[in-house]
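Structure, all two chains, one model.
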Amino acid sequence: MRWYPLILLAASGSLTPAHAESLPDWLKVDGFGTIGILYADDPIATVRTDGRNSSGAQNETRYDQDSVLGLQLTVRPEGPFNAGFQLISKKNSEATHRPRVQWAYLGWEPNSSVHMKVGRAVAPVFALSDVNDVHYSQITAQPPNSVYANNSVTYNDGLTGTWEHTFGSDKLTVEGYAGKTNIDTSRLFIDVPRQAGLSLSWNRDALTLRGGYSYARAVVGIPPGGTIDQFFKITRAAQGLGLCSNCEAFIDHQLKLNGTTNHVSSLGLTWDDGANVVQAEWAQRTSDSAILSGSAGWYVTLARRWGAFTPYLMFSAIKPVAEPINLKLTPPARPTASQTAILNALEGANASNFTGQFHRRQQALGLRWDLYRNLALKLQWDTYKIDNPLWGSATVVTFPQGPQSKFDGRVNTYSLNLDFLF
Amino acid sequence: MNNTLRRSMIWPLLLLTLTCFVPSHAELVVVVGAGSTVSTLSKEQLIDLYLRRLKDFPGSNDTATPLIYNSGPLRSEFLQNVLGRSDAQVKAIWARYTFTGKAQAPRTVENPEEVKQLLAAHPKMIGYLNRGDVDASVKVVLVP
């Protein structure tokens, strides 16, 4: 359904200056977007810049990685109430660009310090969560995925609140949320019936420090016939055939699908004095299910503005944080071919710690060029280095598992993005 | 005067002549409506209001609505010399607030008359003018 972005674009036709001026003061229509081109140079590994994208780039140029179109309607009449509605069209896990409702809330501002929202609003898990898809407002081509692909929660259906207070030249902002959400990635369908989070940020002049904590209780759905579904079947078969002494217990305790508990902690620092920018963030996600294998990631972005040009460097890494898996295999003296296949699969699970061996380092070199009003062109070269190219996998870089894999653990990607606001 | 000397004087004289015809640098002043309770602002407070680090006027609970020219030299001068940010930087900062519903971007205006009309009608608004455009409907709170 490639015509969805066109519909949004057509709707944005009402945003020409003539139309915008005819809108009353209390009604505002804004939009943003990116036309993104990404080339990945590896013939074996696949790179996707967003874990919710059904497709990735494998030795090819793709236009569906960072490309996005968003349209927002904001209603702010006189008085304490306001409302917002935002639609986003972006390649999703169903391989369509069907617009999703990103925000749909009713807001209440009893005074200038407090803003409460009921409905769908941002879940401020990380520093850039609230503008995850508004690439124009970021220096790099896409949010650094060592942290941002760590947790795909973007919105909260429920209650969100912000409290801001200024003490002299210091500003303190507290944001909290409670509600539910869901995440559809290319591998899993995750329903989160209960989530909550709190973040604190402190700003003085060019410096902002931020800390956040989020909790989510999730129900994980796996695609029938997919890799994980097959693994469940193999593991149960192994137990039934007497090839494994603790497979049943492993499924029950370490491969939980219902009621998994997940915690995300994050710390961030931003320095932006107008010319120099340093942005750094660290985040750790822990989970009591190996399906949602925990991880810890960080990034540091360094940038310098020279007029319309902003060259930048980004360094980042991600590593697993997961309980070790130790499937106790009991192979017969003369295994059959099918038994050997099952045993190999289970040995693979032990070797990979199920999905856990995804130590990955990433460096990026890029240039942002503010070439025209509301238009920014970004060129970015990313190098990925996966430490364990036989048994590692993550949402961003995926590749065949096992000794037969010829992947050398290195991938380069080249992005050319045009970001715009309207 | 030999030819070489004459030629060497042509360019400086030409530049001097041209300089006399370029209008002198207009003085930008920051203004609020005559009915506003705000009487003075520091440059840092002004920057904080325009970059949304401050939401309210200092010492009050009145949420400020900044005005900014849609285009023209006064917009460029204000962004570069007062806020110390490029157009793109300011847009990027405001996009973070706009697309989360946390605040509206500064309201754009087209000319000094519109600035004065809005400030006269809305005491919570703040804008800027050339000093020559200041009249009794507004008061100057900062000369950056």
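Confidence is low (pLDDT under 50) at residues 16-24 of chain B.
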